[in-house]
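Standup notes
- DV: blocked on the single-chain target, sequence here:
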Amino acid sequence: MTSPVSINLVWLIVGLPALVALSGALGWLLCRKRTLEMIQFGHTDMVTEVSNLAEFQRCLRREIERSKMRQSALSLILLDLDGLHQINEQHGYSGGDRLLRGFASFIKGRVRPSDVVARYRQGDEFAILAPDTTEHAATELVDQFRRDAEPYFIGDEADGMMMPVRFSAGIAAFDAKTDDPNSLQDKAEAALASAKKSNKSVAVQGS
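- DV (later): unblocked, structure below
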């Protein structure tokens, strides 16, 4: 007959570690599920950890209403990162994701807490919604981005994936007195398209 002491000893040697391992695995799965749910139903882009497009649209509606009510300035900057397609081809999509995260970090380190940085419609496009910012101030901000980008590289030196920061920019300002609420995005997108088509680095108001 097996003694209680022997049973307890077997439990301590075999059963308890197995239970701890199982609990840890279940905890990791629950944590992972919760993280994915937060990304799916939340406000953050999974790759870059900036706001996703849905959150950007919510913030845009809020800031436009605020601008109209207070007659305050509001600008939208769209940035198109160069080189993503090349990196995806040479280093795979994981390399492209590292490039996007690096660019998002570059942007976040140079804006105010009140600004909204978001992943925009295309994979390599980012938006900066800047409350209380005139068109002139937004242009100066992008100019500062460009100066800071000259010595700045993003990527992973270990696998040879280091790239200088290159981007095109479109800038638009919201006129609370005359603009339609939907016009700010249209103007910024037209400005970005103009910058890319003409090989200019920055275009303002679609001109």
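- Follow-up: The first strand starts at residue 74 and ends at 81.
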